[in-house]
Amino acid sequence: MRDLVILGSTGSIGVQALEIVRSHPDKFRVLALSAGSSNYPVLAEQAREFNVPVIATSGERAPLTALFQGEVIDGPQSASQVAAIPCDIVLNAITGSIGLGPTLSALSSGNKVALANKESLVAGGELVTDYGRDRIIPVDSEHSALAQAMRSGAAGEIKKVILTASGGPFRKRRDLSDVTLEDALAHPTWDMGRVVTINSATMVNKGLEIIEAHHLFGTPYKSIETVIHPQSVVHSMVEFRDGSTIAQASPPNMKGPIAYAISEGERLSSVMPAVDWSKGSSWDFEPLDNERFPAVLLAKRCGELGTAVTAMYNAANEEAVAAFIAGKIGFLGIVDLLEKVVQKLGGGAVSQLRSLEDVSAIEKDARILARELMGA
Known about the structure:
Elements: E1 2-7, H1 12-23, E2 28-35, H2 40-49, E3 54-57, H3 62-65, E4 71-74, H4 78-83, E5 89-92, H5 100-108, E6 112-115, H6 119-124, H7 126-129, E7 136-138, H8 141-149, E8 158-165, H9 181-184, H10 194-202, H11 204-217, E9 224-228, E10 234-240, E11 245-249, H12 255-262, E12 286-287, H13 295-305, H14 307-325, H15 332-345, H16 356-374
Parallel strand pairs: 1-2, 1-5, 2-3, 3-4, 5-6, 6-7, 8-9
Antiparallel strand pairs: 8-10, 9-12, 10-11
Helix pairs in contact: 1-12, 11-13, 13-14, 14-15, 14-16, 15-16
């Protein structure tokens, strides 16, 4: 029996994690849940169903206490507070750089973290990995695939890792100048939240995943590649020095990576459908068009400059995506804004982050500049 704390329980990853708990009640016990203030009834219902003693919200507790009889923690630090509860695994499924604080809180308390919040590594870098890479279990399908494929050889035998990308809704679209919000949210493969879906459309998400892979596995940026794979069945690959490539394949379904993470690598039964080998299928692979999707190379350049610059990249992107959703900038303006922020601030960035306060200060500068550049 593994004790879990789930941060972001009402989002897609959190909901699927609880579905896994529901179908494997002998494997998991949920000690605490946290979520934002937008879905109190769902959070309270989750707590009642899974007999969770503690829930946390970034909003006010009053509306929750009317729905839930257990302990309620509220306020901006509530997720960090429950992340410190002694347990086997903290699943961090919070979206955005606000997830960094809870990740550090969990690790500093001795907990392992099943990390779906890639921004923790993009913005925090060595602040997170200094606790030990063995304490961080990837949830992203690409990084889960890499972790599984890496079991086929020793670390010194790995030549490079290859992250697959669906290509998003604009893989074949040449003119991106008139992309609408509706267009950007029409992902052909995955059902995700707005921010992640737009990040997939710009390929910023793949840039974030490259930075995440570097920190998770200690892989040099020059040894991380991206390939377009529209079917999203092969989630990532590892190439070894003898020329062999090991791939992890499964239909596009996040329950597999979530279950693999919260069970610490145990193969649970009946988690998701397998590939149906009785039916014909074709898997396509093609190189990434870096001219149309410059976000990936920009992410690599930021990574080479250090975590302070990748924190800028992420913060500027969060501002740009919010502006795009609000109709204040066009689709192409997102990555253009990232480039401008990094160009202006990246050269003077500190070489090493010493604290969460360092990250917050760097992100604040990037956000302020992004807003100024957008005329906000």
